[in-house]
Specification:
The chain is α/β, with parallel strands linked by helices. The chain is 24% helix and 31% strand. It is built from 7 helices and 11 strands. It has a 7-stranded mixed beta sheet with strand order 3-2-1-4-5-11-10, sandwiched between helices. It has a 4-stranded antiparallel beta sheet with strand order 6-7-8-9, with no helix packed on it. Helix 3 crosses helix 4. The longest helix has 14 residues.
Length: 246
Amino acid sequence: MVDHSFADPSLAALYDTLNPWGPGDDFYLDLVMSAGSVLDVGCGTGHLLRRAREEGHRGRLMGLDPAAAMLVQARRSAADVEWVLGDLRTRLWAGEFDLVVMTGHTFQVLLSDEELRVCLRAVRSALTPGGHFAFETRNPAARAWQSWSPDRPRDITAPDGTPVRVRHELRPGTPTADRVTFTETYETPSWPRPRVSRTTLRFLPPKPLSNFLEEANLTVTEQYGDWRRGPITEASPEIVTVARAG
């Protein structure tokens, strides 16, 4: 379940600038603050758990990520959070957490049915009885990938003040079934050449998502089409899911 996009330290340093705090983070923070112990799978730079500590969370917080470069960023603050290198298969879980979250569309890097089943079983093993698993995936009906085009670049300013331009480009033949493959190209005057990452994401509609969760003894309790908790429609950008461990 490794997404290599931010394994490069130079790109990891850009992550928070590319992904500033938004409504989705507020949604997850509310859940985190009401849970005694939390596992953040694919925690990235750790901004969710870091904010939870700043807001007064005093329980156990663990961030898990397969990219060492991202954890370097996370460990620069919130030293009392457990930062663990790896993925859900890194260790055996024993009902340790009241809440497991996967933010930032991390769920979509689980590409095969078997990989998805293995990770969901691990999530269930990590949860206390009655604990909750929360995540989001882009709604395939909204076809977000149609806007991932090199003629729609995004310009940001890196933490060191240098300008960075980011372009997305779909790979030929995409989408294929429920998978979309694209490249992200990062350019800045301070680098001798552009940095290019390649990512494949899986887009699953609500019913198959619920079926996979049920197989892992996780029951959907809430499902929304946006961060305002609106219903899922054809135009909804997200499928935001909260499931309870049986």
